[in-house]
Design a protein that fits this description.
Length: 287
């Protein structure tokens, strides 16, 4: 398939996190502004504390955040020097699956985490990975992945792509089906989200030059799933990865808010992309 700038087969709108808690934006990281009221899960062995003594704040990790964003948020939440959490990661003894080869991407589960007086970067990372292992490692997911011809680790990878590409939760199952349909037809996925991960950015604008980069995450040039997750998915995305919606679709584009068009026809898709581009041009500020 030949793609020109602005006419790529996948487009999505950046969407806000679906959270009900008030949050503060601190240096690019979202940190919960309120303390939690739910029971506290102990992060490290230590003396017993009352809830008031133990919990000082909480950290909200939205669905789809990359590991680097989470490291930064933890640094800020714990008020430690930038880079502390990333440096602590190798010694944190994270209970990752062997297929991850020590890379926690995909297993830092999106949730609200308590910050205690004795919380450390390593303990918080372990908490996140243990939560992901509980949510992603049950029998349903373990059985669902091979039923779709993929491993459990590939299911997490696929879920991360679905999380990045779907405009709404209701679209996730269809996005998952598009991925499977293209894999089964030996077609490259051509996902902008994987390019963004390789280029360490988030944007709707993908150029022809972008699609030529030499990266294992360039799903325009390389067939199959990317080698690792490209973010940290939530449970809805995981459900879509192991139980995608039935359908023949090969393409999708989010034409406007809440309006994602799925089709098996490239001709219909190019018309949808043209509408997407017209909508963007009309919404752009003059000048």
């Amino acid at each position: 398939m030949v793609n020109e700038p602005g006419t790529f087969p996948y487009r999505r709108r950046l969407r806000p996190t679906r959270r009900g808690k008030a949050m503060l934006l601190l240096g690019g990281a979202l940190v919960a502004a309120a303390t939690i009221a739910a029971p506290l899960l102990v992060l490290e062995d230590g003396p017993e504390m009352s809830m008031e003594e133990a919990v000082s704040s909480s950290l909200v990790i939205p669905e789809g955040w990359r590991a680097g964003q989470i490291y930064t948020a933890i640094d800020q939440a714990l008020d430690v020097p930038p880079g502390t959490t990333e440096k602590a990661m190798p010694e944190a003894r994270l209970p990752l699956p062997p297929a991850a080869h020590g890379n926690p991407e995909g297993y830092l589960f999106p949730a609200t985490y308590p910050i205690r007086s004795d919380t450390t970067p390593g303990s918080l990372l372990r908490y996140m990975v243990e939560t992901a292992s509980q949510r992603f490692g049950d029998d349903r997911i373990a059985a669902g992945a091979p039923r779709n011809g993929i491993s459990a680790y590939q299911a997490v990878t696929l879920a991360s792509v679905i999380q990045a590409e779907a405009d709404t939760a209701s679209d996730m199952g269809k996005v998952g089906r598009v991925v499977y349909n293209r894999l089964h037809r030996d077609m490259p996925l051509q996902m902008d989200s994987t390019l963004n991960y390789a280029l360490r950015r988030s944007t709707l604008d993908t150029t022809t030059e972008d699609t030529r980069i030499d990266s294992p995450y360039n799903t325009y040039r390389r067939k199959g799933l990317p080698p690792t997750p490209i973010g940290n998915p939530g449970e809805e995305a995981m459900r879509a990865a192991i139980g995608p919606t039935a359908g023949p679709w090969l393409y999708f584009v989010t034409v406007g808010p809440g309006d994602t068009r799925f089709t098996e026809s490239y001709q219909a898709h190019t018309r949808n992309v043209a509408e997407f581009n017209r909508n963007r041009e009309s919404a752009a500020p003059a000048g």
